Amino acid sequence: MIPVIALVGRPNVGKSTLFNFLTKTRDALVADYPGLTRDRKYGQGKVGGAAYLVVDTGGLSGEHEGIDELMAQQTRLAIEEADVIVFMVDARNGVTASDHMITRDLRQLHKPVILVANKVDGLNSDSAISDFYELGIGEPLPIAAARGRGVNQMMQLILDSLPENIETEIARDEEDRIKVAILGRPNVGKSTLVNRLIGEDRVLAFDMPGTTRDSIYIPFEKNGQAYTLIDTAGVRRRSKVHEAIEKFSVIKALQAIEEAHVVILVLDAQQEISDQDATLLGFVMERGRALLLAINKWDGLEEEQREKIKHELDYKLSFLDFAETHFISALHGTGIGHLFDSVKKAYSSATRKLPTPKLTEILQRAVAEHQPPLIKGRRIKLRYAHQGGRNPPVIIIHGNQVKSTPDAYRRYLINTFRRLLKLVGTPVRIEFKEGKNPFEGKKSRLTEHRESSKKRPQKPIRKKYK
Fold first, then answer.
1. What is the mean pLDDT of residues 203-232?
2. pLDDT for the residue 456
């Protein structure tokens, strides 16, 4: 599993700023106001070839009443789940009683702790961090999270401090093994589906939300193909989560998505598509994983109900036109047999090698059928295409003015590539690269001739008289 890094410390020491820098996002709200972050926020990042999950937490104030105690509970859960703890202090304010209190709690955990003194920009680093040696948990590392100063050194310390059983790169089985993550809200039938797929009761299935507490990895073979099924804990709305052990099920789901080649999202046919389903789909789409939809508990529904569900899927999930949909009953086995065929097709499409001549031919055909629009009176020129990555397939298109390509034309190109390449079950990403004009900055021969003519001394004009 990829490591989990928890950011802890007093309010307003810069945890959210560091979170945004590490995840290269603006997901965490940042303001010069203590206590802005009250719940956990999690994100993914990568430095070099090393992937990680980072958790932003609310500030620890030392209070044990009201919302401060609730924030402290959230932070303690993050600490319990983390492989490495980044303890942030404020270099401008010096050591406080709260810092000492947090230090005492961290010592009892026996986990790697990196002490980071933030906001050293404009200060003498050595003098700014000198007071924090008294905490006795290692040498303070000066950083400026807002500018990224010292963050690379901090990440190297984090990677060096990881336990030996933690992988800093995304673990992959041998090339022919397909990893399949089973995702969905609690009690939609994920564990029942896993048991049905492998043909035995390998995971606990019970009619109560939250039965699966952690991600379970199950290697097996079917028809000569090696698989690893990943059964994940259900992700539910935060307000519905009460038990501490379930708080970080979303992290396990994120880790499963990161490691999987193909994701099967299980939806309950007897419930509407919810915000939690949309959140899970957002995670899958962001990572570009191949995707199947399994609509469970399909047995016993009236025809009118089935038509209503299909209409809702078409309306709410129209952007998933690449994903195959299966209507199944995990309990009775209805519709299960075709899932593996779709998994193999999606995996093959996501990891296929796409030849440059074929991609360029499809691009030229697409342009011939529907030309790109004009931008400021000049037409966008798309010259050639080649593959830039797999899982998901990335197609890089070179040309002129390509950065001005409208989203509608980008979608047209994606659909054309997917249709002609027969890519099933995987998103396709297109990146545009601006071609350099070989004559940019150079003057034409006519211009050079005119300019040189102006510099020559003009001969007097002599009139001829008859």
1. 64
2. 60
Domains of the chain by range and CATH? 4-161 (3.40.50.300), 177-351 (3.40.50.300), 352-466 (3.30.300.20)
As beta bridge partners, residue 321 has none
Measured CA to CA, the distance from residue 177 to residue 446 in angstroms comes to 63
Higher local confidence (pLDDT), 175 or 315: 315
Query: Band of the pLDDT at 436, cuts 50, 70, 90?
Result: low
Own/partner pairs for 380-389, CB < 8 Å, 24+ apart?
380/404, 380/405, 380/409, 383/435, 384/356, 384/359, 384/360, 385/356, 385/359, 385/360, 386/356, 386/359, 386/360, 387/353, 387/354, 387/356, 387/359, 388/431, 389/429
How many other C-beta atoms can be found within 10 angstroms of the C-beta atom of residue 219?
12
- Mean pLDDT to the nearest integer, 170-195: 77
**Torsion angles phi and psi, residue 351, rounded to 5:** -110, 5
Return the half-sphere exposure (C-beta side, CA atoms, 13 A cut-off) of residue 283.
Answer: 27
Give per-residue burial for 349-369: e unless 16+ CB within 10 Å, then b: bbbeebeeeebbebbeebbee
| Alpha carbon of residue 183 to chain centroid | 15
One-letter amino acid at 263 equals: V
* Helices vs strands, H then E, count in the chain: 13, 17
* 354 or 246: which leads in pLDDT: 354
Q: Is 256 helix (H, G, I), strand (E, B) or coil?
A: helix
